[in-house]
Amino acid sequence: MKKKLAILLSAVMVAGVVPMTAMAATQTNINKTITVKKGAETGDTSLITIKDSDGAINKAITDGDVVEFVLDLDGAEWLANAEDEVNTNYPQKATVEFTKVSATKATVEIKDMGLNTADDSLDANQWVYIPLFTKIKSKGDITVTVSPKGSPVSGGTFTYAVAVAGSATAKIAGTKNIPDDGIAIKDITISETTVGALDAGGTIKLKLSKGFKFGNVNMANYAKVLGDDIVASVENNPENAKEIWVTINGTGSEDRAAEFILKNLRVIPDDAKVGAVAEITVSGAGITKTTLEAGSYTDYGVKVSIYNDDDDMPVFYSGRLYTEEDDVTLGVLISETVANSINDNRKLTFTFPEGVKVVTAYTGASGIGGSGVQAYDFGDTDAWSADTDVPTEVTIKNNVVTLKGLQLDEKVTSKMTFAFNLAISPEFTGDVDVTVAGTAIDIEETLKVAEVKAPFTVEAKVNEVAIDYRNVAVSDIVIKEVEPGIFEDGEHIHLAVENMQFEKGMDYEVTAGDIGVDALDVDVRDGFICVKVKEESAKTAGEITLSNVQLYLNRALPAGDYDLIALTDDVTKLYNSCNVAKNAAGDVYFDIDDVTMVKGYVKVVTAGRDVDDSTFTTKIVVPVGSYTIKAGDKEIAIDVPAFINADGYTMMPLRAIVEALSGTAIVTWDNQTKTATVLFGARVISMTIGQKQMKINGVDVAMLAAPVIVESRTFLPLRDLGYALGLNDSQVNWDDATKTATLN
Hints:
Radius of gyration: 34 Å
Strand content: over 45%
Shape: globular
CATH topology of the largest domain: Immunoglobulin-like
Oligomer: single chain
CATH class of the largest domain: Mainly Beta
Number of domains: 5
Number of helices: 6
Structural class: mainly beta
Distance between the termini: 30 Å
């Protein structure tokens, strides 16, 4: 998605700040130099930036002026649609008209600054950005030269890209034994070594060696894109089952190399001899031609699949304990496709995801824990006949079940069914992928065997509040069960807000579903909401809306975000049975006190005056030399960037950082004494230009370096600023590789 280009505006400093000095010419720079492949196209990542040395372009270009200058490329050409891209998609406050004169030359005209001549401070800090839509034609430094043609625009030659010999690589995560009916091979990762190495519109070909073919593929199931850097489609060659095509539809980033993963590609023997190696040759679309070993054809075969009476994928719910009486189990079927493929007297493991623990396990009609494994032989008649129980050592530890000592008939293909009762963490949702492996079978197979859903959801708007004492009104809370009957008779839902208490007296109603309002009991107990369901829904999922919700906020609460949570430490079934349920050894399955339902439900924007260091709740990221900083998720323009002084200290812009951190912080300036004062929470911080000490709440504190003024802005060392705002050394970080400071 194209970024809309706008002239960045920022307010001038309050009255009393040292006035800016008018300059006769602009500053002209490139915001970023990118690394690309020859032939790549650039867009709005590299920009020519034009502003005054004082940060205000109107000092050099006044309202009514018409300014024209020339851009010359070296090592690149303008894209055919460069004019349309710049003039149509990047509106600016001034009129900026870009005209392509030749393949390498263009003119830019700036006029109609639109300034308020009565008070030019309203529009004082204006920048003009020219995006460089070009195609790279050579290697090495790619430059653009700005020729002023008598205008106040400063000229110069600037490197906006470095073109290198790019390529892409293919790697496979390992090999697998390939049985008669084929197998999903290990993941194949395609990676660019440089940005733009893969050719947009090109096709990567994966070709299998003699004796093998690919199974059918599907983009949704077989490709995983990392970081949304590239868009690719995957398909079989309709005329050759030995080939798969990966079409590069386009790259999405000029900042970092792209990478994507081909998952679950199935390789099937096709007249291969036992022991033949399946090799995949990867080529095309800018990739370095590579041959990958996927595995070898074996003379045995084991297939792992889901097994349930109705063949439907079972659904479990977060925070619940499932026992034999619940009649909800998970089934796995292990089948030999070649007799004697499963090695006897060896280990077999079932590994479930974290957040899923096995309570009991069964095979056939016999329980595993005491009576051993019940094995079944599968004959030509498709009839099941039970063999005798065999002594088997079984271990169930959290999410792993281990069996030892399997003994099967060597002359027939065998099948074994396994069923498991589970405990589900209150925090776990999504697919239950079980990995079947071990020395008993020479494959490792992972398959989806169940799905876990949250039993209910909670919806509420985020609330920004100032510290008060009682009856602080917040938004309605809507509780929705995902399916009818999830809220069973006698179950409770307990909701709370971190470090706050709900007030009594809220209203409630059933806004959907067939739960009767008389079947609810809603109350506030010890500051949390308790919703008791006395009669479950039958046909339609229920929805309960809590309104007139109010909170009690302690006056000493620090500013920041507070989540709406569901408590899990009660003895009720919903969302907390797993927390108190114990296995035979008396161990708790999941020791989880609460689950976040609405992130940042309450945002305290004004902390109590008795709060000090904890008022710092916003992460500030400041790259040296950049005209933007980040405050949380917001990107904020600044008129003078951070820099490193001659003594090696990183100097930070005081006002920009403090105002980005808090909308209530105040920065004042005494021009007579050259003193800046910051009111931040309970802190009063003052510093004088040229003096290597500051005052924090009246106490003198030594500084690493004296504050200085650069382009009418006060700067002080990074560590001194962090200390002044109440941060310790671990909360003030410096990345030397990227020249970036972080305060959090």
